[in-house]
Amino acid sequence: MVGLSSKALRKHDYVLEGSHWDLSLLSITELPVAELDANRKATKVDLSNNFIRTIPPEFPKLVHLTWLDLSKNRIVELPENFGSLVKLQHLDLYSNKLERLPLSFGELKRLKWLDLKENPLNSELQKIVGDCRTAKECEQCALRVVKLMKEVSIRLDLERKRRKDEEEEAMKRQQLLDDKKRVEKAKKKAKLAKRKQREHQSKESHVSSSSSTSDKKEEVGDENNFKSGAKPSTNVARHIFSYISLAILFLLVLFLILIVYDGDKYAFVSKRIVSRLHESPVIKLGKELTELCYDLVKHYRQRWE
C-alpha cells in the first residue's frame, strides 16, 4: 500500500466522532498537523499502525491534545519541544524506534498513562519503564519517566549553570590578571620614562656645566693674556724660572741658618756646593748673596761672643 501524507487524507479515510479522531491503519507517512490544528475539537487522536518516522517541531503546538496513540510506527525521535503538549494525559509510543526522550518530557505534568515497550531505549530509561502489561504499570511508568526527565533536566541545568559560573569566574580572574599586568606594565613604562628623563636632564646639566666652565676658563685666560700681553708659553717659562730661583734661595737660606748654629761644620759644605754649580747669572747672584750673608753672620757672631 502506498503511504499517504497529510495532504492526501480524504474524508472517508478517517472517522471523526466527537473528540475522538481515528487515523489508524491509513499508511500515513507524515503527521497531518494542519488538519489536526484545524479540528481543535478532536482532543483524542489515534495515529497507530502507520509509517510515521518523524514528528515535526510544529506538532507540539497542538496543545489541545489530551490523548495520543502513536504506537506501531517507525518514530526514531521526538522533537525537543514535545513537552509543550501540557494537556496530554495519555501517550502510547509502543513499538517504535525511540532510544531517548527529550528533556522537555519532564514538563508533561498531567501525563497519567505511558507505554514505551518495544523501543530500543537507553539503559537508564529501560530500568524505570517496566513491562507496562497492565494499566497500573503504564500509570506508574508515566510517573517515573516524567519524574526522571524532570530530574535530569534540573541536573543538566545545574551543571550548565555551574559551568557558566566557572567560566565567568575564570574570565573574571583572567580579567583581573590582565588588568594587573597592564597596570604593572604601565608603571614600568612610566618608571623607565622618568629614568630616561633624569638621565637626559643630567647629561644636559653636565654638558651645560662643562661648557660654562670651559667658557669661563677661556675668558680668564684671554683676559690674563690680554693684560700681560704675553703668550701662554712665555708665562709658563717665567713661572718655572721663578720657582727654580726661589728653590735655590731657600737652600741658601737653609745653609745660612745651619752655619749660624754651627758655622765650622757646615761652612765648607756650602762652599763646595757653590763651587761646583755652573756659573749662571742666578748662581752668581746666589754666590754673592751667600758670601755676603756669610760675612754678616761671621761679623755678628764675633760680636755676640
From TrEMBL:
Keyword field: Leucine-rich repeat, Membrane, Repeat, Transmembrane, Transmembrane helix
Segments crossing the lipid bilayer: 240-261
Segments of skewed composition (Basic residues): 188-198
Record-linked Pfam families: LRR_8
CC per GO annotation: cytoplasm
Region feature Disordered, mapped onto this chain: 188-228
Protein name (record): Leucine-rich repeat-containing protein 59-like protein
Source species of the chain: Dinothrombium tinctorium
